[in-house]
Write a structure and sequence with these properties.
The chain is of the alpha/beta class. The protein is built from 14 helices and 16 strands. Belongs to the ROK (NagC/XylR) family.
């Protein structure tokens, strides 16, 4: 696939995201802000207008040259629901066609219960029923910590959730009677970063999450790299220490077993830094207060993470590394070990790669899941399969009303 072809999906979605974030915009400004050619922007915006997603508005004021026609969103052209699933809770958002979150909710959830999927469907039904507005619901995106065979199938293997070959997509489609797309939650988050975050404008990106686990999403030539069975990006299971602590994947000495939240808390207790009932909040508070033992614990974790990520960067050659997740709240303590280990382990041509650390928002995961649905109208590679076709059919239903009002 050519580099320009791989970028098509993200460019069209990025047009909507940019106009949603910044308001009515000219084609020339879009080309400049998104870093693509005016001809490509003209091509994409023409199709977005035909699809009923964009509309032409008034001309912008002229500074002596020819006035530029502004483009704005057709606000009621569609919306999506996204849900992030973890072992003990779900985070849900509703997002407009531009990806902007319009409402959100967090609910308790027991992933290990026998009724987990029907419970998930019940929470989604309740959330969906609380929505308003005239925009049609295009579908539901689901982000899970684990491997997903294909987005449009949605069979999940997740050690964190205790799910093995669970047909999440099929079961939710039957329960909700809506298109449902399922993806690894870090992959979904990477899509949100490409559309709305610091990955926008870059084609080759490594997104790393630290928190309860360590995960990664990879954009290569503008496309999400999923691997053979959707398991690409499992950097948390890179072997780091021979015969090290047991990991939930069944191995020993994995990166996640050394620097994940459970591992850090266990080390803090073993070293007498925190009490048996304390957790990550206590560790972070002590580090903030200047406790040298806890600061060293975070610094060591940063060192291990830095060396491991340097190896990944050397292999995939990204333009930027983005770090986020629950763990970034303590990043200033990680960075003392991370920066020297990371930079010294990179090959010379990669040593200037920027590392961006994002302030964490829990509903960002769910926004990523919603992006799975919102990107399907531009799915040239067929990743969304039959579910993407159903989303596009729902989107097509709103076209006639927009066409009538413009005639």
């Amino acid at each position: 696939m050519s580099k320009s072809g791989g970028r098509t999906d993200v460019t069209r979605s990025a047009v909507l995201a940019h106009i949603g974030a910044h308001g009515a915009t000219s084609r020339a400004d879009l080309a400049r802000e998104l870093g693509v050619s005016p001809a490509l922007i003209t091509q994409h915006t023409r199709q977005l207008i035909a699809d009923g997603l964009l509309q032409e508005l008034a001309y912008s004021p002229s500074q002596g040259g020819r006035p530029a026609r502004l483009l704005g969103l057709v606000a009621d052209s569609g919306r999506a629901v996204g849900v992030k699933v973890v072992a003990d809770h779900v985070a849900m958002v509703e997002a407009g066609i531009d990806g902007a979150v319009t409402r959100s909710a967090t609910e308790p959830f027991d992933a290990h219960a026998d009724t987990a999927i029907s419970d998930l469907a019940e929470r989604l039904r309740a959330f969906i029923s609380g929505g308003g507005g005239s925009a049609p619901l295009l579908g539901v995106g689901v982000g899970v910590p684990g491997s997903v065979d294909e987005q449009h199938v949605g069979t999940v293997d997740s050690t964190q959730l205790g799910w093995s070959q669970i047909p999440v997509g099929e079961m939710l489609r039957r329960e909700l009677d809506l298109p449902v797309l399922v993806e690894n939650n870090v992959n979904a988050l990477t899509m949100a970063e490409a559309l709305h975050g610091q990955a926008r404008g870059h084609e080759d990106v490594l997104v790393v999450t630290i928190g309860t686990g360590v995960g990664a999403g990879i954009l290569s030539e503008g496309r999400l790299l999923r691997g053979r069975a959707g398991g690409a990006g499992e950097v948390g299971h890179v072997p780091v220490v021979e015969n090290g602590p047991a990991c939930q994947c069944g191995g020993r000495g994995c990166l996640e077993a050394l620097v994940g939240e459970d591992a850090l808390v266990a080390q803090g207790k073993a070293n007498g830094l925190i009490g048996e009932s304390a957790g990550m909040a206590a560790l972070t508070a002590l580090a903030d207060e200047g406790d040298p033992g806890v600061q060293q614990l975070f610094s060591t974790a940063g060192h291990l993470l830095g060396r491991a990520l340097a190896g990944v960067v050397n292999v995939i050659d990204p333009e930027i590394v983005i770090v986020l997740g629950e763990g970034v709240g303590a990043w200033r303590h990680w960075t003392f070990g991370f920066e020297p280990a990371f930079r010294s382990s990179l090959i010379p041509r990669n040593r200037s790669v920027p590392v961006a650390v994002e302030t964490w928002q829990d509903d960002r995961w769910a926004q990523g899941a919603a992006s799975l649905v919102l990107a399907t109208p531009f799915d040239a590679q067929g990743t969304s399969g039959e579910q993407g076709r159903l989303v596009r059919e729902r989107l097509a239903l709103v076209r006639p009303s927009h066409e009538d009002t413009s005639s």
